[in-house]
Specification:
single chain, alpha+beta, 5-stranded antiparallel sheet, 20 strands, disordered N terminus
């Protein structure tokens, strides 16, 4: 028996080792891993290298509008304004604390209240800094209402633009003879009722796409019980809300594919485009993603422009 068992046990061990190696080899089949991990190889938008004919450009900024007169995209960031051409090329930029935009009352509040100077860069590209001209020296109290009314009527009648602000100390602004004049407000409710603002037609157009774009497809990939970054397709280890694969169809047949965690194309993603049918360019697309980093809810943020690659 000892001899029998002495010859049989090594054979069984060899068989078990062979079976173990076979199972391990099948489990480590590179082709199988590639198939299971196909979504993990899809980049986030901020990592994307674009497509054959399009590039993804990371921009500094937030809201995007289109100037219907000068024909450029205007992008506002925390500290700057940027102008981009209809073809997606940077034209110019300037610090926002010097840019006056007539149809945006917030620029009057900021420039008139904090800096007392402005430029007409938005209107005509001129970066020269000018000062507001005070019609009456600043007075916080004991204002002569007769004098104020007389001056207001004088400049209201000859100014082509009149803009009122609602700061703690309201100001009235008058554009006359290529200069901006101003004076502190008085009788505010009465003035606004009898002398409404005089403003030019709006030139900034909203180009944000309402709802989900028709050229876009979104697929949800369930990701739960995360054990590694790979399992979560690049998410933090605590992430367990799944991943969205987003495919954008571009003019010419290219498809831009990227992934986003958590909300997909929910409340934290906006698309901006001025289509060719409205005098724009179908090949230029702006994507704005809000950044979010809560306990189990992570999303990369940023502003991106998809534009055709420059032919060399």
């Amino acid at each position: 028996m000892k001899q029998i068992f002495g010859t049989e046990i090594p054979g069984r061990m060899k068989l078990l080792v062979y079976i173990f190696l076979l199972v391990f080899t099948i489990g480590c089949d590179p082709k199988k891993n590639i198939a299971e991990d196909k979504f993990a190889k899809i980049p986030f938008l901020h990592e994307s290298k674009g497509t054959k004919n399009y590039e993804v450009v990371n921009l500094d900024g937030g809201p995007i509008t289109y100037d219907s007169i000068r024909k450029f995209f205007l992008i506002e960031s925390l500290k700057k304004y940027y102008k981009y051409s209809i073809n997606g090329k940077l034209i110019d930029s300037m610090n926002s604390d010097k840019v006056l935009i007539v149809e945006d009352p917030n620029t009057f509040k900021k420039l008139g209240g904090d800096y007392n100077s402005y430029s007409t860069w938005f209107e005509n590209g001129d970066k020269a800094i000018r000062g507001f001209i005070d019609i009456i020296p600043f007075q916080r109290e004991n204002r002569d209402s007769v004098v104020y009314k007389k001056k207001h009527l004088e400049f209201y009648n000859k100014a082509s633009i009149v803009r009122y602000t609602n700061n703690n100390i309201p100001y009235y602004y008058y554009y006359y003879n290529n200069n901006w004049y101003r004076m502190t407000g008085w009788g505010d409710a009465w003035i606004k009722k009898h002398y409404p603002e005089k403003l030019p037609p709006p030139r900034l157009k909203d180009i944000r796409i309402d709802g989900r774009p028709t050229f876009l497809k979104q697929t949800y990939v369930v990701t739960k019980n995360v054990k590694s970054n790979n399992d979560a397709l690049g998410a933090p280890k605590s992430f367990s809300m799944g991943t969205y694969i987003i495919r954008i169809g571009l003019p010419g047949g290219d498809s831009l594919v990227y992934k986003r965690l958590g909300d997909g194309l929910g409340n934290l993603t906006e698309f901006y485009q001025l289509p060719t049918s409205r005098g724009g360019n179908d090949s230029i697309l702006f994507i704005r993603q809000e950044y979010n980093n809560q306990d189990e809810y992570f999303s990369h943020g940023g502003l991106f422009m998809v534009r055709p690659k420059t032919k060399k």
